[in-house]
Amino acid sequence: MARFLLIHGAAHGAWCWRDTIPTLQALGHEARAIDLPGHGADTTPLAEVTLESYADAILSALDEPAIVVGHSMGGYPISVAAERAPERIARLVYLCSYVPWPGLSLAQMRREAPTQPLVPAIRRNDDGVSMRFDPAMARDLFYHDCSDEAVDFALAHLSDQPLAPMQTPAVLGERYASVPRSYIVCERDGAIPPVFQHRMAADFAPEDRHALPTSHSPFLSAPDALARLLDRIAG
Questions:
Q1: What are phi and psi for residue 185, nearest 5 degrees?
Q2: Which of 40, 90, 106, 148 is the most buried (most CB within 10 A)?
Q3: Among the options 53, 72, 105, 217, which is catalytic?
Q4: May I ask which residue range the UniProt record assigns to the signal sequence (predicted)?
Q5: 3-state secondary structure of 32
Q6: Is the whole model's pTM more than 0.90, yes or no?
Q7: pLDDT for residue 21
Q8: Are the C-beta atoms of 144 and 190 separated by less than 8 Å?
Q9: Is 97 a residue of the active site?
Q10: Which phi and psi angles does 70 have, rounded to 5°?
Q11: Given 3-state DSSP classes, what are the helix, strand and coil percentages for the chain, each rounded to the nearest 5?
Q12: pLDDT < 50 positions in the chain
């Protein structure tokens, strides 16, 4: 039995793990998801959200060491949390997510990819501190292999995304490097090019590199396959 803490990506919330949590539990694991500050049911004002506050929320949710899974943008705050308290994280799992490179914010890392599928869908909000994704483009970007019900569910829950966490580099060192880590490439991802995911995972040990034949949202399109893979990784 393993403990899993599931961390969502940009504009998402704990809601996106609705189908994965019960499958992990059926496999004998403990699993929970949280809303990062400013997401889901968390009411933190978007202007106050930072990469550090994301990491604070993750560490506050870790009563005991757990496998921490970060989706997409979630790769940055799980890395910062590992640098701050490696003893509270049994393993990091990057699910089609950004693995921080030295000196680069997530926004800068995104521009390192060979293509930029997200750019046409990004809409800056008038508040100057947040953005959103055009819902008309969300299916192709995030959910193209999901059921109509799952797409409707996701579109009803997408939220504004604070900009500051994505504009802040993650400062990582030996404490972060001491934590075991795995990467799951989503081979049909419409948001983060799979070739870039492979590049980010290139220095992971071969046995810690995995793949799913899914979109950017396997937690909705293939929750059973995702849970089984996480079960394997935990083993």
A1: -85, 135
A2: 106
A3: 72
A4: none
A5: strand
A6: yes
A7: 98
A8: yes
A9: no
A10: -115, 125
A11: 45, 20, 40
A12: none
